[in-house]
Write a structure and sequence with these properties.
- 55% of the residues lie in helices and 0% in strands.
- With 252 residues, it is an all-alpha fold.
């Protein structure tokens, strides 16, 4: 698969390589409506607003809320990371591949219900795990979850958190660099035929990674769950993403 045309259409949408896309197979067409400045500005503004509000709530919860409720900072942090991801998808496209800078480059729609459901479940698991309220079981004493050390302020929890941040930076950085380096050879829509002027990129980051966009999204996705302290969604994300990318790469 790499005519720098990596695309994705996972059950809950994952971005991909040079034709990194969530949309079903279709030829990319730029229309005036899809590049409407007003619509683009509104989406960019709302993403910026969501990022700022979520980041403010994250810092406020972390530094002003008494323990152990302060651990709930992870939930708004997840929303901030999502807003940043979707904004960067459009921004890098607009900067490095202007003709493809359409509304769809935000990747805010067309991802399918499963994509939204996955993030919703991740958010709910995070709140459930970090909320310090007692969890009682009929006929039993109060039980702490087996993964409690990963969600606390102990050494293991802090190390786990740092690992998550490292995965986020590695994943987002790799994906962004791949998009920027591919330039006009990168597109969010699946291409059914080679576009005029399209070339296979084999230098830069593509010299070291065959599918840097796949690689980036995979580790970014897992990193979000590690930072949130999720266990079930981490396992679910890993299985779904691994199976999807393995099948995609083999079929390509």
């Amino acid at each position: 698969m790499d005519l720098n045309n990596d695309t994705a259409s996972i059950s809950w949408a994952v971005p991909t390589q040079h034709t990194n896309g969530f949309q079903p197979d279709s030829t990319h067409e730029t229309t005036q409506d899809s590049k409407d400045p007003h619509s683009i500005a509104i989406r960019a503004f709302l993403l910026g607003l969501a990022f700022g509000a979520s980041l403010t709530l994250t810092l406020s919860t972390l530094f002003t809320v008494a323990p152990p409720l302060h651990q709930l900072w992870r939930a708004p942090f997840f929303l901030a990371i999502l807003a940043l991801f979707h904004f960067l998808e459009f921004y890098i496209t607009a900067r490095c591949n202007p003709p493809a800078a359409t509304i769809s480059a935000f990747l805010l729609s067309g991802n399918g219900h499963a994509y939204n459901l996955a993030h919703t479940l991740a958010l709910l698991e995070c709140i459930f795990r970090q909320y310090p309220g007692p969890r009682y079981y009929p006929g039993r004493r109060y039980l702490q979850p087996l993964d409690a050390p990963l969600s606390c302020d102990g050494r293991l929890g802090i190390a786990w958190l740092y690992l998550g941040f490292l995965m986020l930076i590695l994943g987002q950085g790799t994906r962004t660099l791949a998009m920027a380096h591919a330039g006009t050879n990168f597109n969010h829509l699946v291409q059914s035929r080679k576009r005029v002027g399209h070339v296979l990129v084999t230098d830069g980051i593509y010299r070291w990674l065959r599918h840097p966009s796949y690689f980036g999204f995979f580790w970014w996705g897992l990193g979000t769950q590690v930072v949130m302290g999720n266990v079930w969604c981490l396992l679910g994300y890993a299985i779904v993403l691994w199976r999807f990318f393995t099948h995609r790469i083999q079929s390509e």
